[in-house]
Amino acid sequence: SDVCSSDLKRLVLDLLFSKVSLIMSIESCSSRGTLSTMNLFQNPTSPYFLTSADYTNSSLVAVMLDGDNHQRWRRAMLNVFRAKNKLGFINGVLKKPTDNPQEALAWSKCDGLVISWLTNSINPILYDSIVYHETALDLWKDLEERFGHSNEQRIHELRCEIATMTQGATN
Fold first, then answer.
1. What pTM, to 2 d.p., does this model score?
2. What's the chain's Rg over C-alpha atoms?
3. Do residues 118 and 77 touch, judged by C-beta distance below 8 A?
């Protein structure tokens, strides 16, 4: 009960902080005449678009990466990032902008969120080895390098073969 209450308080504080940050960004953009940058936040097709359901302490998939299930976990994460229009943060297509400070801020915010989603979908035993990555792309590459060469496909094939085997007749 205390744990749930604590998590709920953190969630509310995260949401309030996000809302205050967004309001301050809007006021800042309005005062500098760069309100068009806000379209990055408001356009649902923008990779910087966030909804009220996008918060840092959520796990987006039912499968937690434990080291042996990388392919299944990877597929689930790619589907989520595709649905949330955040693939560019893990495949290197969306680089941190250098010429627009507002867009760079939006990129950093979303990249941090993607890092959070990734770390929340990884078994806590592995957490200490992945917590120090600076970008979602760096974290994704590290996970691919470390766990992407699993035998999961072959294990599945062998299990299917074993399940369909029949014992020969004895004389």
1. 0.66
2. 21
3. yes
